[in-house]
Amino acid sequence: MTKTLQEIIDANPEAETFRFGDSAELCAEILNLVRSGVKTATCDAASAYGQGGDAWPEVGRRDVALNWDGTPAVMVETVAVFTRRFNEMDAAFVKEQGEFRDLEHWRNGYKAYFQRNGGFSEDMKLMCERFKVIEDFA
After folding, report:
1. What region holds the ASCH domain (predicted)?
2. pLDDT one-digit tens code per residue, 16-26
């Protein structure tokens, strides 16, 4: 039986919902990497969190990644969360994100992403999160 988003949230009232990426294509691509275990980390602009934004990830909290259409895709549990500046990103964390060839590829991809989604600066603060998949709703 397929679980509805409401059933999942009712069973996990602390859970936040979110989408990876900023398009249907990117969301699907990233979810495939998450499901395959290639992607075990992510980052976003720290300014996207807090008052008026998403709740800051917390170690141990389980959240629901959605498909682009808003249906539940996977439940993930945060295993680590920290901040880092864009210009301080390292190759090891980039590798955990799964979708980039190397640090330069990450820089180019995220610079474009941040420019499309609210602004970019070399020293912008990032929320960096490591997670594990708890349940796949596919």
Report:
1. 18-135
2. 999 999 999 99
Reduced to 3 states, what is the DSSP secondary structure of residue 99? coil
| Residue 11 CB contacts under 8 Å (≥ 6 apart), including other chains | none
Using alpha carbons, list the distances in angstroms from residue 54 to 19, 90, 93, 112, 113: 11, 25, 22, 21, 18
Tokens 């602009």 sit on residue: 45
Q: Flag whether pLDDT at 124 surpasses 70.
A: yes
CATH of domain 5-136: 3.10.400.10
Domain segments of the chain: what residues?
5-136
For 108: left if phi > 0, alpha if psi spans -120 to 50, otherwise beta; the answer is alpha
| 26-81: pLDDT as tens digits | 999 999 999 999 999 999 999 999 887 788 999 999 999 999 999 999 999 999 99
3-state secondary structure 40-58: CEEEEEHHHECCCCECCCC
SS3 119: coil
